[in-house]
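During the reporting period, we have paired protein sequences with backbone structure tokens. One record among many follows, to show the layout:
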Amino acid sequence: MAEPVVATYSIVACDLEARQWGVAVQSKFLAVGSVVPWAEPEVGAIATQAYANPRYGPDGLALLREGLGASEVVERLTAADEGRDERQLGVVDAHGAGASWTGPDCNEWAGGRTGPGYAAQGNILVGEETVAALASTFEKTTRLPLVQRLLECLLAAQAAGGDRRGQQSASVLVVQRDGGYAGMSDSLVDLRVDDHERPIEELRRIYGLHQRLFEVSPREDWLPLDGELRIEVDERLGRLGYETLDAWAGVENLEERVDGEDAIDPVVLDALREASG
């Protein structure tokens, strides 16, 4: 039998307009992000927890890929699993339908809730308020990008009581076809905190770094790189020992925010000013 991913709450969700699917999870368990979250763009997302069956991830995505709906996937996976009474599972399919399973032998409090575009579930919780907070927060944050909605859900769930045994690790995974690094990856965001006293806060801090390095400001917000600003940028680059903005940005992992020499992303300019004093 698999080791229990104890005291865990998660939400699997999608943004059909943005064509994104994702999972956010927090647990009193080391490196929960290595076990619970699974997602594939245009296919769906899955969370497997409690006495987690890691095969639910790849096997469930395979069933979703075949066109089965979320409820059908839950039924297929649990029916074929003799340990289903101790499992917990959440699924969102390609069309945004959600389904959740909580086996009768999961440790209290345990349960789930589903709605349009999401399935929320948790076990060994202080109470059902934790799962209710996951659901209500997702429903109230429709204007935010999916990854930010998922992080807000984790925060609200913890504030509502969270895990009965405490905190240890957290993870957020969001996928989008060709939405990741350099347009050649489907992992839009894949961040994990494996062992921390306040893993959700740390996950939010790391996401802030991710935004700085890999997101791009709208082109209309970029500043023309000419006149006094061109002189300033060249002076700052020279002070740091670089001849071009590209060369410096590559070292600082900001290359995704640099596109030519005619204009500069304000985030890149701020980082250059900070680095050059």
Summary: The helical segments are 56-65, 70-79, 129-140, 146-159, 199-214, 227-240, 245-251, 266-276.
